[in-house]
Design goal:
Strand content: 25-35%
Number of domains: 1
Structural class: alpha+beta
Helix content: 10-25%
CATH architecture: Roll
Largest sheet: 8 strands, mixed
Mean pLDDT: 96
CATH class: Alpha Beta
CATH topology: 2,3-Dihydroxybiphenyl 1,2-Dioxygenase, domain 1
Radius of gyration: 19 Å
Bound molecules: zinc ion
Low-confidence stretches: none
CATH superfamily: 2,3-Dihydroxybiphenyl 1,2-Dioxygenase, domain 1
Distance between the termini: 51 Å
């Protein structure tokens, strides 16, 4: 059954400028766990940071390539423009105060779909983020201890794609990627392979907006989660039949990947759930090492020289919000 081949969102990958600022924002202010510090496997002079919950479960994984001083991108159609995180309803006061204390400008809560309260803000590179307050999310949030467990982010709530029209992308999601349309209002169409927070894909029909331009502060691609290599190959064959020109299977160390461009222009990926982030570090020590895949291990010294060292100083974040 096609529903079994995609279980929801696996990860989202975005582009940032400064690695230390990125780490401070996502692990320090938002409290996500840095589950892996490695390099961009296609450009090993650039870091690849993976943030997530305690183990970096699919549906919680946000990754960044901090490219340094490259051009800032522009959000627009044909792009994933907003990443929304899931937090409990009772945490709204906490997060408003937290964002204020760290001088993060935010728009006060607005209602969506009649039942969701949403606060919106931007990261240090201008990437649009949201907190969606919900009591529907059964997942446990992760905390380093500097954010109370009951207020911690539980993972994604939804991601938001802007499209010229939504039909062709919707047809791909529902026809081949195991999604269903579960809600719609105005120009927002919500799809999910699994109707639970962390898996919602919102398409905003935005014919009047400009096309997005990649660069700092924009999303590079999103990945859907597939159970294993077999389901991934079945999906890849389907994509070939649909003339979507998928890449071969690429080993990303923590999952295996197939990439293709959806009809609206967004880069999609199909990523396997296994092996996950404990393949080279224990659960207790995720994110502590600088992990290089086998092909780059012989160049470790050279790579460590090029990549600026980064450090998560949690004490700094405890002091601001005591
Ligand atoms: Zn990816």
């Amino acid at each position: 059954m096609k529903e079994d081949k995609i279980t929801g969102i696996h990860h989202v990958t975005a582009i940032a400028s400064d690695p230390q600022k990125n780490l401070d924002f996502y692990a320090g202010i938002l409290g996500l766990r840095l589950v892996k510090k490695t390099v961009n496997f296609d450009a090993p002079d650039v870091y690849h940071f993976y943030y997530g919950n305690e183990t970096g479960e699919p549906g919680t994984i946000l990754t960044f390539f901090p490219f340094g001083d490259i051009q800032r991108g522009r959000s627009g159609k044909g792009m994933i423009n907003t990443i929304a995180f899931s937090v409990p309803i009772s945490s709204m006061d906490y997060w408003e105060e937290r964002l204020r204390k760290f001088s993060v400008d935010y728009h006060p809560a607005q209602e969506r779909f009649g039942s969701e309260a949403v606060i919106s803000f931007k990261d240090t590179d201008g990437l649009a983020l949201e907190l969606v307050f919900t009591d529907k999310d059964a997942r446990n949030g992760f905390t380093y201890g500097h954010i109370p467990q009951e207020h911690s982010i539980k993972g994604f709530y939804n991601i938001e794609i802007w499209e010229e029209g939504y039909e062709r992308t919707a047809g791909l999601l529902t026809g081949h990627l195991g999604h269903e349309l579960i809600m719609e209002k105005g120009n927002r169409f919500r799809f999910a392979a699994d109707d639970s927070p962390g898996n919602y894909v919102d398409i905003l029909c935005s014919p009047d907006s400009l096309r997005g331009i990649g660069g700092n502060g924009t999303v590079h691609h999103m990945a859907f989660c597939t159970p294993d290599k077999e389901s991934q190959l079945e999906l890849r064959n389907l994509l070939i039949e649909r003339m979507l020109n998928p890449t071969p299977v690429i080993d990303r160390q923590y999952f295996e990947s197939v990439y293709f461009r959806e009809p609206g222009g967004v880069l999609f990926e199909i990523a396997t759930r296994p092996p996950g982030f404990t393949v080279d570090e224990s659960k207790e020590h995720l994110g502590e090492g600088f992990m290089l895949p086998g092909q780059y291990e012989p160049r470790r010294r050279e790579i460590e020289k090029i990549t600026k060292p980064v450090r998560l100083n949690l004490e700094k974040f405890r002091r601001v919000f005591a």
